[in-house]
Amino acid sequence: MRQRLVAAAAIMAALTLTTACNTGDGGDEGDGGSAGDFDGTISFWYAMAGRNGEAIIELVDRYNEQNDMDVQVEAIYQGNYNDTLTKLRASAQSGDLPSMVQVNELSTRFMFDSGLATPVQELADRAGYSFDDLNQKLVDYYTVDGVVQSMPFNVSAPTLYYNKDAFAEAGLDPEDPPQTLEAIRDAAGQLAGGSTEHGFVASIDGYLIEQYLAMADAPYCDAGNGRDGLATQVEWDNDVTEYIVDWWAGMVEDDLAVNVGRNNNNASAAFQSGNAAMMTFTSANLRDIIDGSDFEVGLAPFPKPREGDAGGPLLGGGSLWALAGQSDEAKDAVFDFMAFMMSPESQAMWSTQTGYVPVNERATELPEYTEVLANYPDLELAGEQLAGTPEGANTTGCLMGVMPQARDRMNDAVEAALLGVKEPRQALQDAAASLTSAIEQYNDSVGTN
Amino acid sequence: MSQPAATKTRISGTAPPSVPVGKRPKYNRRELLTAALLLLPSMAIFAVFNFYPLFQSIYLSLHANDILGLPTRFVGMDQYIEFFSNPELRRITVVTAVFVVMTALPSVVIGIFLALTLQARIRGVNVFRTLMSTPFGFSAAATAVVFAVFFNPAVGVFNGILRMMGMDSVGWLTNPTFALPSLAMVCVWGNIGYTLLVASAGLQNIPDELYEAARLDGAGRWTVIRQVVLPLLTPTIFFLIVIMTINSLQTFGEIHILTGGGPNGATTTLVYGIYQTAFAYGGSNYGLASVQAVVLLVVVTAATWLQFRVLQRKVFYG
């Protein structure tokens, strides 16, 4: 009996000790992260997988070898953009934030409103850095209230990929790809059932609808696309949005297009395996898609919804954010790494390995860029498309805190229409209505912050 | 979530409970103190990892939160009202119920069937037993990723087989009619390794004499299974049904990777709804998600209690 009591007491003592340690750790949270003691390590969360992820790691390795500040960057893959943002929110609650994070274009407003980040402008001013070499239009996109918020590291444009071999076999001109939704439908009619089972494929992705609306020079949300003030609702209940979704649903209903669900990889797999002859997809995976297809891949500008539409595509992709609460020394190190990622050499390598736009305009003069361009002339298309986008609120995209949820609701609407569960107009109305309370809640919580 | 650990502790539940005693014996203070001290470590762990999150969930379910998910102000039952007046609730409930039936029942039936066939006294039967229980060793994520490739609409194995047989491709995960059965199939595949193991262990506990006696009485193979084996296996079957029900109510990984709750909400269960509300697409509505978590807790408790009440009466502990 005595022995048992001793044993129990020992276990208890051990337990108290460990809990004591835990509270010791927790106590650090109060003083705002690890400000003050920078140990030369930068934690960098990124959201790219596959070939694009490998390119990021390659850049990080180069930096770790080269930099003269004795800084080590620790790059950590956190899943896709949504997963990364979810983890960022969770770690914001516990106060254990990384030094730097890659966030998609959609979440810019959220990052700004949350106050989680230090504007990049502030770090650039400390380092005496000038944004002059960078594409001004792209920097402007990440400028809120006149201050550059984040570094436009990976910028993409939506693109039409098509199978030139299948085009030739179907009697279509491989050098004259379709430019409107109607033309895609006509081409798909000739292509389907030929060397490819389907004429067209696209994953259910609200991103594409955002792009079509910008091409049509139509707004996505109210309050001047969220740029004149906080948006209070999305503007989906109109003819042009209905036209786009109706076109898509009709393509699937008539077996001209295959519905592969919401997973982007399923769309690129269908295209690359020769299952579908045309695909709307981001330029970000251009190299991957061209190299992984055993037919000649053609690239064309993103289609306009209707003949005569005078808008242009929005920029997609992501940017690099510096998290708040870091010491000056750490901030300088973070910015040194960011500047490296934006250097002509880094951007040339990054762009040619992926399909993203070279944001640093001097990158295009380097031999490592021009040599690859000779073999992959379509690498320039994304940049050209973005350069041709006219200025205006509709072609800069909707700035709204709940954009990620909006994209998801748009997915719901498109999916319901493709499955024939709802009429396109009804699906859009329902999705827009279901989003209103989320927008209200967001605006409410930003207001009370 | 912590499924393996949870089931391991519950496996001891297969042992018949000790005979209940009429009068509670008196303990002296010293014994009680020892008991309390020995219980303290596990109670401390329970408190940190189970009770604290539970009360935190209840707290969050009564509060609104900001864009980072931090609670802001007390809103009482508002979020419960929002949840119960949600038109989607009916569908989520039906999907969850159908999914539980489609997953738990086949898992138990197939597991027991395989365990019975693997009773055969043939050479190398242990090799098959090991092979067939390997799905137990795979994580939900690994299983789901492999099946996602099989289900792929364009380059998947399943559609490839259909095409080879001259049939039309099927939208395994993109067609709302097929998505839930496809998902259930993956989960059943993952579960049978476990149900097979437990059922085999249960079968080992049936003494050989009973088989012999039955055979001497002239019982055929089918009669032996029906009249001797299955009645003696009832504690195991009962245990498996309870565990599999709880398990399928909590399924998350397969849904997340294979369908993300789609298409058109056809695979959004109660658990997946919690995730979508709290985390997906920067939702961060922890209040409403906590309401769902509390409801899930009540549902799981009720289902388990009901099964104990109804099924335990039919259990024969030998």
TrEMBL record, chain A:
Subcellular location, record wording: Cell envelope
Keyword rRNA-binding among record annotations: no
Predominant subcellular localization, coarse grouping: other
Alphabetized InterPro entries for the sequence: Bact_solute-bd_prot1, SBP
A GO term from the CC aspect: cell envelope
Gene3D superfamilies in UniProt: Periplasmic binding protein-like II
Signal peptide, first to last residue: 1-20
SUPFAM superfamilies the record matches: Periplasmic binding protein-like II (SSF53850)
Alphabetic keyword roster: Signal, Transport
Entry-linked Pfam families: SBP_bac_8
Family of the protein in this entry: Belongs to the bacterial solute-binding protein 1 family.
Name under which the protein is recorded: ABC transporter substrate-binding protein
Source organism of the structure: Phytoactinopolyspora alkaliphila
UniProtKB/TrEMBL annotation, chain B:
GO cellular component terms listed in the entry, alphabetical order: plasma membrane
Domain ABC transmembrane type-1: residue ranges: 93-307
Compartments it resides in: Cell membrane
Domain of life from the UniProt record: Bacteria
Gene Ontology annotations of biological process type: transmembrane transport
Entry annotated with the keyword Transport: yes
Membrane-spanning residues: 32-52, 92-116, 136-158, 178-203, 224-246, 286-306
Keywords: Cell membrane, Membrane, Transmembrane, Transmembrane helix, Transport
Biased composition (Polar residues): 1-12
Pfam families, alphabetized: BPD_transp_1
Positions of the UniProt region annotated as Disordered: 1-23
Topology of the protein relative to the lipid bilayer: Multi-pass membrane protein
PANTHER family in the record: ABC TRANSPORTER PERMEASE PROTEIN, INNER MEMBRANE ABC TRANSPORTER PERMEASE PROTEIN YCJO
Stated name of the protein: Sugar ABC transporter permease
Organism of provenance: Phytoactinopolyspora alkaliphila
